């Protein structure tokens, strides 16, 4: 059992129709996952079939491999067990056999912080020593985990702190689903053996009409109820890994979270949006942030490649969007940049023109050292929100959370990493050179 025997879709991959690297396109980066020194294989991130294939390669016959894979999969993803020794329905002699060949990984926690408002932030580290972050935001009626898809980001939206970082690499399916598993570990939220919900949940495979079953798993009192792919990185530039991870999250015998409780946020990677709807099927959020070409070109540079019209058309065509499952447009409020009444009216006009089932999230800009923008004033935000709201479109203003711990998704950073303005400029230049 060696790393080279890992199933092929763990290899670095960009979807076949992904545009080639260029000024704004992603730069394909090697996965660079360092194989474990001990030669054991981490099972986290693998679907049942691949686990079965690995068991077969390790010497089990087809039938035994399939049965063991089913049991192990359930323990890993549904019960959150981290030791083979605790898989009680697997023969005692079989458990050391598994432990010699496989591991059950989690991202390493470098630092965990809790804000005065209950928001939690973790600085995590991959096995090959790259740091990324995850944030948990508790609310009265839900708890939302903000998950990263890449270490850094190839794009460089000007208001986003992640945009000043270089892309180090895509996170693997294991590192993506591992974030959710780690959050469940920390929140103590794995189902217990005597949990009556398990009997009804095991083996269920949620699809379109299974919302009731899925919500049975997330009763009142459960902390982690929702996931947003809004941490570091552009999830649609790491499509395969994000899809594979979310499939494990959505599987009724896996983490069993309904796709209706998962939202993927994109800066507007138009060619991947349809596949996102078809192959993942989660809710879509679009980082619109501006309604004119000039402003969006400046603050969300991918707009130079895929313009506003093309983006909104892709939203109109997004599989599964409806009045019951609206597309969220994120709009960060930047003083004197995108926040006038005229901008608000144009936003309404565009949403109506494309007949979009939409809601708008107004996000007060969260400043970071050296950022070239300021947040709009509260009155300006109110006035903007009123225009959108009066047009019949929901437009909540998002309360900043966890500011005392720098927890805003998408601009995640730690005090330890704080860089001087000069260093930020240098990184931005280097990044531009690499992309150009
Ligand atoms: N790359 C994806 C997902 C990660 S960014 C995307 O761009 O959609 C998640 C969200 O955080 C985006 O809407 C982004 O615009 C927002 N964001 C980034 N930096 C921010 C800041 N400084 N203040 C407020 N929101 C910010
Ligand atoms: Fe990347 Fe999203 Fe930040 Fe833009 S807003 S730089 S796409 S993480």
In short:
It contains 13 helices and 13 strands.
Question: What does the model show?
Answer:
- With 436 residues, the protein is α/β, with parallel strands linked by helices.
- 33% of the residues lie in helices and 14% in strands.
- The chain is built from 13 helices and 13 strands.
- The strands form 3 sheets. The protein has a 9-stranded mixed β-sheet with strand order 3-4-5-6-9-10-11-12-13, with helices on one face. A two-stranded parallel sheet has the order 1-2. Strands 7-8 form a two-stranded antiparallel sheet.
- It is elongated.
- The structure holds S-adenosyl-L-homocysteine (SAH) and iron/sulfur cluster (SF4).
- The site of S-adenosyl-L-homocysteine has 17 residues, from strand 10 and strand 12.
- Iron/sulfur cluster (SF4) binds next to loops.
SSE inventory with pairings:
Blueprint: E1 41-42, H1 48-57, H2 62-78, H3 94-101, E2 102-103, E3 108-114, E4 120-125, E5 131-138, E6 143-146, E7 150-151, E8 169-170, H4 173-187, H5 196-201, H6 211-216, E9 226-229, H7 239-250, E10 262-266, H8 270-280, E11 283-287, H9 293-299, H10 308-316, E12 327-333, H11 341-353, E13 358-364, H12 378-390, H13 421-435
Parallel strand pairs: 1-2, 6-9, 9-10, 10-11, 11-12, 12-13
Antiparallel strand pairs: 3-4, 4-5, 5-6, 7-8
Helix pairs in contact: 1-2, 4-7, 7-8, 8-10, 11-12
The structure holds S-adenosyl-L-homocysteine and iron/sulfur cluster (SF4).
